[in-house]
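Figure 3 (text version): structure tokens given as input.
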């Protein structure tokens, strides 16, 4: 029951974060540079899709440019991958 409660809490917080990203209240580069704990198991591709003006093609292109798999999680990014993606998003 505790695991189910925690999973539901993480889902609710991620949904709220995606709404904040869509509204422009949270910057994607700052989020990826210093991610909160509940974002660690989310896929980078899914987080990028929540950003305005980002669709499947643009998100895939950004990840391919940084040599990041679409199935990679935010917590699983190496320092090089994180730095390269954040730098690309800040341009």
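Below: residues designed for each position.
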């Amino acid at each position: 029951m505790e695991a189910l409660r925690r999973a539901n809490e993480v889902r609710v917080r991620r949904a709220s974060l995606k709404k904040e990203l869509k509204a422009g209240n949270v910057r994607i580069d700052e989020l990826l540079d210093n991610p909160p704990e509940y974002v660690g198991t989310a896929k980078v591709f899914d987080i990028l899709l929540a950003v305005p003006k980002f669709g499947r093609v643009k998100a895939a292109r950004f990840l391919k440019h940084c040599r990041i798999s679409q199935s990679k999680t935010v917590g699983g990014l190496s320092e090089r991958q994180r730095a390269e993606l954040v730098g690309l998003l800040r341009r």
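Residues 45 and 70 are 6 Å apart (CA to CA).
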